[in-house]
Specification:
With about 475 residues, the protein is mainly α. Among the domains are: about 130 residues, Fumarate Reductase Iron-sulfur Protein, Chain B, domain 2 (Orthogonal Bundle), CATH 1.10.1060; about 160 residues, Rossmann fold (3-Layer(aba) Sandwich). The protein is about 55% helix and about 5% strand. It has 22 helices and seven strands. It has a four-stranded parallel beta sheet with strand order 2-1-3-4, sandwiched between helices. Strands 5-6-7 form a three-stranded parallel beta sheet, with helices on both faces. Helix 14 links the parallel strand 3 and strand 4. Helix 1 crosses helix 9 and helix 6 packs across helix 8. The chain is globular, with a radius of gyration of 22 Å. The protein starts with a helix and ends with a helix. The mean pLDDT is about 95. Bound molecules: iron/sulfur cluster (2 copies). The site of one iron/sulfur cluster (SF4) has 13 residues, from helix 4.
């Protein structure tokens, strides 16, 4: 298939899901069914037991943009549907007990607005005295929003590119992967055998890792060699940031990509899979993969910071000591969702005497505001992706309504991230170290917008010359 035909196929795929104008009753019915199908016993607790105390509100990065974006107010969108379809009072009394289905364009527009004011950071979950996870309810509503067609074209585009593996046909992306492998071989002074079956460790960088922080990808290979591990890595990317479909709430499509990742891992047969992305990829591959695919993996998924801690504690790794004024920004997914609350700080304290915690750290750390796909909904990002794939940026914005949505979302995003930047400023750090490409882009953008002079690095990029 030629490049033009391939792009045409992707744009056709995108057109099948994106619909920003009008109200289609059939699509709404299907989307309501999707929401109801996603309600399990845990979500039933989230839907039933909120007392409206508001304790979760201050934890939300978007509550500071506008109080209407409080977790409980956003989650009310899911509760209205639930009450209407699954409670006796809701079925009989309807709007009198706040039970109703979205019934016009205005309702659909409000749902998509609320959905893209939630990063699924989990901060409301840990703040709620009843452990109610409004982020999980917004993920349900995200699948509603996508099924009715209110999905950002840029997200639908990236999802299709990943699912159809079209990134393998884009010379710039193929070269980015090849260059990083060449650089690894040069640094190690040997040729790494890629896709080697039977390796004990499978190092699994994604395409986004390679594009965002190639130095971190190389540093990890250096570390694996230094530790004397029997490792390999893929000869080509298994996904852009697999599976992107989860970010727009399409679990069926996510399963296709996840299965591809799982099959590849199984074909190698490692004991350990090492990731360097601390965003949604980490909890997804580590905790959700067995449930989503109904499999019992024979491998253990580790984030690179876990391997660092283990190696330092067992005396297998000595790192160069410095005096940098460095801090750690905890990506919500590996921290609140994944449980790695102390490991990265442990490593940084071993490396630098100047390490300082952010005023809000660990479970109470502030979300940067860019997760859940929000960091991709900016004109700058859309233009960069359009250029990378050789499409006109106008093709990645379906209508004036979507354009207004992008404008409003970008405005909200730039306000939401300020809280994080203020926290970084208070810490006095000159270097912010983290492990998620979205957090890195968001903090770098915030530092530029609000005039804070900090370097933003992936933890392995930071450790490159200290290994
Ligand atoms: S803290 Fe929990 S109970 Fe209180 S409003 Fe938020 S979700 Fe509801
Ligand atoms: S998960 Fe995070 S962004 Fe979403 S509602 Fe809760 S606190 Fe806000």
């Amino acid at each position: 298939m030629s490049h033009t035909q391939l792009l045409q196929t992707i744009l056709e795929e995108v057109k099948k899901v994106v619909r920003w104008e009008g109200f289609d009753g059939k699509r709404v019915d299907e989307a309501v069914k999707r929401v109801l199908a996603g309600i399990d016993v845990v979500k039933l607790h989230y839907l039933e037991n909120c007392v409206g105390c508001g304790a979760c509100a201050p934890s939300c990065p978007y509550f500071y943009v506008d109080e209407k974006y409080s977790p409980v107010n956003k989650a009310e969108e899911a509760r209205r549907i639930y009450r209407k379809k699954l409670t006796i009072a809701g079925m009989i009394l309807g709007p009198l007990v706040e039970a109703r289905l979205p019934k016009n364009e205005e309702d659909l527009d409000r749902v998509v607005e609320f959905v893209y004011r939630c990063t699924n950071c989990g901060a409301c979950y840990t703040a709620c005295p009843f452990g109610i996870d409004s982020g999980a309810l917004m993920v349900l509503m995200k699948s509603f929003s996508t099924v009715v067609g209110r999905v950002p074209t840029i997200m639908a585009f990236l999802e299709a590119v990943e699912r159809l593996e079209a990134y393998k046909e884009i010379p710039a992306l193929v070269n980015a992967w090849k260059n990083v492998v060449d650089q690894i071989n040069r640094e190690l002074g040997r040729v790494v055998e890629l896709d080697r079956k039977g390796s004990k460790v499978l190092y699994l960088p994604t395409l986004i890792d390679v594009i965002s922080y190639p130095k971190a990808v190389v540093a990890t290979a250096k570390l694996l060699d230094k530790l004397g591990l029997d490792w390999t890595m893929p000869s080509e990317p298994i996904g852009i940031r697999p599976p992107i479909a989860v970010v727009i709430g399409l679990s069926d499509r996510a399963k296709i990509v996840l299965k591809r990742v799982y099959d590849y891992i199984e074909s190698i047969g490692p004991e350990i899979v090492v990731l360097i992305d601390g965003g949604f990829v980490y909890p997804l591959l580590r905790f959700e993969l067995p449930i989503r695919l109904n499999v019992k993996p024979r491998f253990r998924v580790m984030h690179i910071v876990e391997l660092l801690v283990e190696s330092i504690e067992k005396g297998r790794l000595k790192l160069k000591y410095v005096e940098d004024k460095v801090t750690w920004h905890p990506p919500c997914q590996m921290t609140r969702r994944g449980g790695l609350t102390i490991e990265p700080e442990y490593v940084l304290k071993v490396v630098s005497r100047g390490f300082r915690r952010l005023p809000h750290h660990g479970l109470e750390s502030y979300c940067c505001g860019g997760g859940g796909g929000i960091g991709c909904i900016t004109f700058e990002f859309i233009e960069a992706i359009a250029k990378m794939f050789g499409v006109d940026a106008k093709q990645l914005i379906s209508s004036d309504k979507e354009r207004r949505f992008i404008e409003e979302t970008e405005k909200a995003y730039k306000i939401a991230l300020k809280r994080k930047i203020d926290d970084i400023k208070k810490s006095g750090a000159e270097i912010v170290v983290t492990a998620c490409p979205t957090c890195m882009r968001t903090i770098a953008l915030g530092a530029k917008l609000y005039g804070v002079n900090v370097k933003v690095l992936h933890i392995m990029e930071y450790l490159y010359d200290k290994i």
